[in-house]
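# step 3/5: fold
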Amino acid sequence: MVSSLGGCITDVTQVIIGKEQIWGIIANLDEPFRTMVFLDAFTGLRVSELLALKWGDIDFDKLELRVSRAIVYGVVGKCKSKASKKTVPLDPTLAGALSQWRMTTAYNGMEDWVFASEATKGKKPLTPDNLRRRHLQPAALRAGVSGRIGFHTFRRTLASLFIANGEDIKIVQESLRHANSRITLDLYAQATTAGKRAAQSKLVRMVLPRNSQPPTQALDG
């Protein structure tokens, strides 16, 4: 269950983390994992898409990246759907972090993997299972985040934070590149207790006549 936006759902299939927890995990990672998770947390890329990124997919002038392939079990293939292939906008801070990483890595050519594996001398990208087990989950534990944290955690969290921020559902759908908004609402966006209370309070203020007493007080009087 979630007690607030800063809380954490412990069901491993529905993990949502809070704003402070996102940064706590990022701060406990070394490069390139820090940049990788930073990018993932604010774009909602699937891990198969994240690891399939090449430098040529990133347009630093237009501040966007193209999702044109996915890697599943080490095999490069197509994206999950037509909607998945849409361009993804980049906040300047995200673009700056990627640019900094590009200046650091030895594999910085247009056809190189953004998150290339040193073990394969850049011929392959890093693998998701090792990333989660050796880096992401330990960073979460150091940050005091319980539950089984994976890359999909950030995708679910992004949707819920967008909803909590009052973003239009169409914006959320397009940001996550879902085929339709029902997927976004049914599978990803979970309302927080604080968000639900705010919605409830908004209705109370709308229905209750201005300057009137709450019903219980009126009855007691």
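# step 4/5: annotate
The chain is about 45% helix and 5% strand.
# step 5/5: archive (pending)
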